[in-house]
Amino acid sequence: MRLLIVEDEKRLALSLAKGLTAEGYAVDVVHDGLEGLHRASESPYDLLVLDIMLPGMNGYRVCSTLRAAGNDVPILMLTAKDGEYDEAEGLDTGADDYLTKPFSYVVLVARIKALLRRRGQGAGASPVHVLGELRVDTAARRVFLRDDEVALTAKEFAVLEQFVLRAGQVVSKGEILDHVWDFAYDGDLNIVEVYVSALRRKLGATLIRTVRGAGYRLETAR
Amino acid sequence: MRLLIVEDEKRLALSLAKGLTAEGYAVDVVHDGLEGLHRASESPYDLLVLDIMLPGMNGYRVCSTLRAAGNDVPILMLTAKDGEYDEAEGLDTGADDYLTKPFSYVVLVARIKALLRRRGQGAGASPVHVLGELRVDTAARRVFLRDDEVALTAKEFAVLEQFVLRAGQVVSKGEILDHVWDFAYDGDLNIVEVYVSALRRKLGATLIRTVRGAGYRLETAR
DNA sequence: TGTTCCCCATGCGCCTGTTGATCGTCGAGG
DNA sequence: CCTCGACGATCAACAGGCGCATGGGGAACA
Fold this sequence. Notes:
The structure is a homodimer.
Chain A: E1 2-6, H1 10-22, E2 26-30, H2 33-42, E3 47-51, H3 59-68, E4 75-80, H4 87-92, E5 97-101, H5 105-124, E6 128-131, E7 134-137, E8 142-145, E9 148-150, H6 154-165, E10 170-171, H7 173-180, H8 190-203, E11 208-211, E12 215-218
Parallel strand pairs in A: 1-2, 1-3, 3-4, 4-5
Antiparallel strand pairs in A: 6-7, 7-8, 8-9, 10-12, 11-12
Helix pairs in contact in A: 2-3, 6-8
Chain A binds a DNA duplex (30 and 30 nucleotides) through helix 8.
């Protein structure tokens, strides 16, 4: 875990760096806003601790510039409580959390951990499956084909999900029926064909391959 | 946020429930240890307030049984100070925090909030969530839309909070019901639709997107 | 007693699931 | 190589379900 501290009060910056290093983080420190922006743009940090009052470029601008460039590294802002700067403004510019000086070291560490955890969950906890040009986010129930979102109905999504979970394997119509339709359903297997047809129309014909007499197979990336 | 209070002193339990409900939590109360264990095992509570001296099964055993079953719901234990039971033992059995009777209501609420924050509920320690033009301060229970504060009722806020905690993911009506309404409620899922409707009216129609057949999704800014 | 909030019920409109018919395709066997 | 039968794909039409809006009744405050 790499952290960047952008803070011009050198004593504070140093003591934070020391403590966070002891926690097991790799910590870099800069004392200037512009310098911080460069560092953050060029290296992949896991989190930024960003003061607002900075020489070179103030924290708000560093933050909004990073965001404008598409950088979504978690940012913890440090604000002085004397009111010249507003906490809300920090959040508006795209910071993820703020802390008002003076703060306790324990609280800072807790917030940092929380932000890192949040990031971790946001990416890891939501199982996103990528198969070539197809991206399926089961938590958000969204499907993307080459950056374009594809709108699927509930049943279509459920069928696709079965294929994704067993990508590359042959899945029979009966199995799809068992997993997607409820127990009581005793209709025709043709219903599966109908949905495969719909998926092919929306996602491209080559994605789901027919295995005659056995079922279908979702093509894995190649 | 659903809380379960397990406390056999009925007057105390009732007054806590009343106060916490006013804070916007969905609160269930039981007066018996065994009953509490069952409830906690079967429903997804966000926090337990657990007395030690209880009929049926004492608080220690309730706590350790839950932990043994892999349930890691935050538990706040209430201990009498007369020494028959030991605070440390409570923590040993897997409680997250304890409070010695008599305690002030304010302290209790503070501890509860701290635990919920610490546990994060998937959201980290920051009480403020920013999603595009929406800013939700869960600690202060205030909501801002583009610098204007929006007045929400307790239930409206509770529903919104669920969405915010799982922003970008699909949340089903059932899940909302489970977390916002208490267990005594067994009404129609339609009630969720009514509240989503109210939120859309106050916060704009595009914020909460309907995912037909699955639930709703709070749009993340981007 | 008035106001606010919460829950329920109703009706409506649109989307979606399902069906059955028809058309296309594959492969085995003559 | 051709034919035929079986399997699969697609389409259109219908009915029911799902989600939304709205208003009223009732409870809980002040």
